[in-house]
Amino acid sequence: xxxxxxxxxxxxxxxxxxxxxxxxxxxxxxxxxxxxxxxxxxxxxxxxxxxxxxxxxxxxxxxxxxxxxxxxxxxxxxxxxxxxxxxxxxxxxxxxxxxxxxxxxxxxxxxxxxxxxxxxxxxxxxxxxxxxxxxxxxxxxxxxxxxxxxxxxxxxxxxxxxxxxxxxxxxxxxxxxxxxxxxxxxxxxxxxxxxxxxxxxxxxxxxxxxxxxxxxxxxxxxxxxxxxxxxxxxxxxxxxxxxxxxxxxxxxxxxxxxxxxxxxxxxxxxxxxxxxxxxxxxxxxxxxxxxxxxxxxxxxxxxxxxxxxxxxxxxxxxxxxxxxxxxxxxxxxxxxxxxxxx
Length: 342
Prior knowledge:
Order of helices and strands: HEEHHHHEEHHHHHHEEHH
Shape: globular
Distance between the termini: 22 Å
Strand content: under 5%
Radius of gyration: 20 Å
């Protein structure tokens, strides 16, 4: 697939444009939210600061605008359509998140609605029902794949949403996942820079956006992503996995996310909103995070991290990042094992 613009230029645009748009847009968003009194209380701080909500709106807008720019400058119609499908997919998830931020969807309705985000990919045929497995190589699932495809979008969305509880945790962990998937894609498909690989484009768009968002969401956070942001980012991970034939690699890279969401769902025996659950953690007198020890509280990744003792919020996030980095290494090893047989 050829474009009038060199692939390396497309990659640079894919990285820098969303980074700049998000970096410039977030301060305006923070100011607007403060003026409107739309904020969340950062309960992990002694001062209980009021932090601007729904920064994910800027994340979503940056991705949409970058995608539109790429559609304009790329001449190949097939590539343009694929970029459009990626954009529409995550926009659907982002809109569901936006509705949830304003009206609080139920814990059952939200994941059901997220299944709809897969419709553009299915309708356009922007998937190959032949996922790669280590030691096995390419498999063929056909009908089963189509049945499972909606969950490949919905599950990462919910998993990212469930882990977005501390300053910078969602952004840094997701960036680590994206880097792992980037190298895995390079290993499996051996794609360089002579031809345009849209998997790289989508990864760069997300990394650029998340780096800029992290600057304002890191400790101490000035803005929260909200469900708009976490569902957008999660859907993007799912779309990259499906459209890039990196399903297994993405699952391995997201093990901490999956562990956290599975622990919560299994321990509360169903889907519940965060506000409906017993809080699994509390703050100590010196403002560290410790377990409440309540048997009714959900089992979370954070609960496992602080099992041996209370930790500062920054240390909890660091532990999450270390676990995500390790799972990313395993994802890259998985890619090597796949490459051996393909």
